[in-house]
Every structure is written in structure tokens, then in C-alpha cells.
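User:
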Amino acid sequence: MSLFSLCRAIEISSFAQAIDGSVFWWPAIETIHLVALILLVGSITTFDARLLGLALRGVPVSQLAERLLPCTWSAFGVSALTGTLLFISEANTKYCFNSAFRIKLLLILLAGINMSVFHFTVYRSGLKWDQAALTPLWAKFVGSFSTLLWLGVVIAGRWIGLVGK
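Assistant: Predicted structure:
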């Protein structure tokens, strides 16, 4: 089955049609998606600002992570769910062949890799610098890269509706 056929089949499903054809569901799902994205990017940016030494210097990194991670993961889950619902509603028409959508997915993947690298390398040595106002260079690099990636996600998301197939 080709990508075109798969995307077309998703879009013409009764579930997708119910979302796309509703004056309530599509705007409601999009609104929830945007609110979740604001919470997601806000919590990540707050953590990144701490890593960069721009904010909350008096708060230990581990304590900030403990406070923000539940919000971050919850918002990511809601964003992924609502994003999937938006995708299926116009899979072929709007998303499958949209370069901005593909860039958004790539940036989200890179942000996930960046976060994984941070948590499995730099963060593990965090006990040494957890309460220091200034974080190590690698932590600053990861925080900077994360901020840029999530800014790119937001920009690409806004471009989805503007970019043709």
C-alpha cells in the first residue's frame, strides 16, 4: 500500500470524517492541542532556562525536574493524542505530504533524542552540580539545543496550514 493510499484511507474513515465534519470537534481538539503545547513548551523552556542559568538559579535542577516532569509528560501525552486526532482528520489533504508537518515531526524526534542524551549522560552527573547556580557547559548546550528545537516545533506547527503539499 502506498503512502498516498494509506493517508487517503485514514482520512476517509468514518472517525476522521466525524472529526473533520464537525463544527465542534475539530476546533475543540485543536484548542486542547494548543493549550497542551503551551504547557509542554512552557515547562521545557523553564527547565532549559534553569540549565542556561537564566532563571531559578536558587532551585536545584533535580527539584525543578521533579516539579516540571509530570506537567511535561502529561502535556506531551495530550499533545500527541490531539495531534493524532488532527492528523487523521485531514491525513491526505493536509498532513502526509506537507513539508512543515514532516519538519515538525523531525524536530520532535530530535528533541526527544536531545532529552534522552541529557537524562542518560549529563543529568546522571547532576548530583555534582545540582545546586550550583551555573551548570556545566554540556547542560547549557543541551538546554540551548532543546529551546531551539521546541521553537522550531512551534514555528513548523504554525506553518502546516500555510505550506501546500
